[in-house]
Design goal:
By secondary structure, this protein is of the alpha+beta class. It is built from 16 helices and 18 strands.
Length: 530
């Protein structure tokens, strides 16, 4: 048995060396590399013959000179370095590439000679992994979010980054002896959820976001939003919790809610004020509508007076003559009959005049179907006495159009605009002309009233529909006519606008104002509120 062991000892020794996953080197006290196993030769890229021609400082980048090697050996001999200890150094391959190794060496005497036996392990992967881990820890610790690692089974805090310790005032050692429920409490309200419920829900959903409050060592409270997910490691489940301080957001939400409450109260008050103002505006509009109507009525009455003056004068002359003739006993029966017939004709004229003006004084409460051209002609007739005295020519280009709306209100608009045109033409020395067109465009009737009075100044043309804005003297106008025209047309669901345009008449070109009115052919009852 001893003979077997002696003969096979070397074989067993060589086989063990070559099967080892660590590089094994033998070297003498002079630094000569005497032997290396298969792993060592693969690591360095040398053959055994090549390696045996090298010194230790040819493959060790740290101990890269004979002097350094001898100095290190001296330290070994003086027991300054424990050969059983693990040291790290750098080995250099045949192609010059460097790689880190972890070396365990022993100092041995064989046959009276001193040798060093070293086991070297390539730690490149381990160092890279360590660097990555250090980087990850650096990132975790530099995060502005609070990061916890919690044991799912017992709620114990296994790890917390630096910001946790800073914000909560605990050391990592203190936190390691605490449960997450020791520092966390739920928020009040619909989102209230305790730790057991959190863990139970997380196991079902795997990922979760919760709201909570962390209590600091000093008793302060921090509102947080936490993202949670489960990570399994070495057969155990851990929770990675990333919490961010939402105190500012919570404060903003509180302020927002307070502002919303104030806004709701303000809106309630505002609605009442708006309703009050609305009612005042309605009352104001009614007053202005009456004022406009009264102003127009005044002009109508003036026209009635003009048209009645001559018939009344004739009746007065005839009646006075008959009285004188009767007193002188010279009134014949034929002359009496003739004069009475004349008086009757004049009375009929007066009656017809009243009929012409009657519709304007009627309250207009119901929509009706009427001819637009008839309303335009009637408005011209109602102010006939005014333009006859001024020798104003009316050019009418009127299509026969049926309109379902408020005829009296349209009549009032036409009277206002025509009267404004007449006022502008009073002081003109040339031929005075008012042109009125009426035609259908789509679902609307379009009415254009154009005069040759020189137009409206560009400085004020944008203001002429404003209430109480007038270019006339106070005794000539109130400034509510065009404003009310705009309101009435709006009530008729239409629009009115004005611009300066040219008017051609008898081969002459004049400048003047052009009012354009658009009204729907049929008034929409749902939109119209009186």
């Amino acid at each position: 048995m001893n003979h077997f062991s002696d003969e096979n000892l070397v074989k067993i020794w060589k086989s063990s060396f070559n099967l080892s996953n660590q590089a094994i080197y033998w070297l003498d006290i002079e630094g000569n590399l005497l032997f290396a196993n298969k792993k060592a030769l693969e690591s360095l890229g040398y053959t055994l013959d090549e390696l045996q021609n090298l010194k230790l400082w040819n493959v060790d980048a740290n101990v890269n000179t004979k002097e350094k090697y001898l100095k290190a050996l001296e330290r070994f001999k003086n027991e300054e370095i424990d050969l059983s200890n693990i040291i790290q150094t750098i080995h250099k391959k045949k192609d010059g590439e460097l790689f880190p190794v972890e070396v365990v060496s022993s100092f041995e005497q064989i046959d009276g000679k001193e040798y060093v036996i070293s086991y070297a392990k390539d730690i490149t992967y381990r160092l890279e992994r360590t660097e990555k881990i250090n980087l990850y820890f650096e990132l975790i610790n530099s995060s502005s979010d609070m990061i916890f690692l919690v044991d799912l089974e017992n709620e114990k805090i296994e790890f917390a980054n630096k910001i946790v310790c800073k914000e909560l005032g605990y050391s990592l050692e203190e936190l390691n002896n605490m449960k997450i429920s020791d520092i966390r409490e739920p928020v009040e309200g619909e989102q209230k959820i305790n730790i057991p419920e959190v863990f139970e829900k997380l196991q079902k959903e795997k990922k979760l976001i919760t709201l909570g409050i962390y209590k600091t060592k000093k008793g302060e409270r921090i509102s947080v939003e936490t993202s949670l997910h489960i990570k399994e490691y070495l057969g155990k489940n851990f929770i990675i919790a990333i919490s961010r301080d939402i105190g500012e957001r919570v404060e903003i939400e509180k302020r927002k809610e307070e502002l919303n409450k104030k806004l709701r109260r303000y809106n309630e008050t505002l609605e009442k004020e708006v309703e009050k103002v609305k009612n005042e505006l309605i009352e104001y509009e009614n007053i202005m509508r009456k004022q406009s109507k009264m102003a127009a009525m005044g002009e109508i009455i003036e026209n009635i007076a003009h048209q009645w003056r001559q018939p009344l004068s004739a009746i007065s002359v005839l009646s006075s003559g008959m009285i004188i003739q009767n007193d002188a006993d010279v009134l014949s029966k034929d002359e009496l009959s003739l004069n009475l017939n004349k008086i009757h004709d004049q009375i009929q004229y007066l009656s017809k005049t009243i009929d012409d003006f009657r519709n304007f004084f009627k309250p207009d409460k119901k929509k009706s179907k009427f001819k637009v051209d008839k309303i335009i002609k009637e408005s011209i007739k109602l102010i006939k006495s005014r333009f006859n005295a001024l020798d104003i020519v009316f050019v009418k280009k009127l299509d026969s159009i049926d309109l379902y709306s408020y005829d009296n209100e349209l009549l009032q608009v036409m009277l206002n605009i025509i009267n404004n045109a007449v006022d502008e033409l009073i002081n003109k020395e040339y031929k005075r002309v008012i042109e009125i067109k009426c035609y259908v465009k789509g679902a609307y009737v379009v009415i254009k009233i154009k005069d040759n009075g020189g137009g409206v100044s560009e400085d004020i043309i944008d203001r002429i529909f404003e209430p109480y804005f007038t270019t006339k003297h106070n005794y000539h106008g109130t400034g509510i006519g065009l404003y009310m025209c705009q309101n009435i047309v709006g009530h008729l669901q239409g629009k009115i606008e004005v611009k300066n345009d040219i008017l051609e008449y008898e081969n002459q070109v004049f400048e003047g104002a052009c009012f354009k009115i658009q009204i729907p052919l049929v008034l929409n009852e749902e939109k119209n509120e009186r």
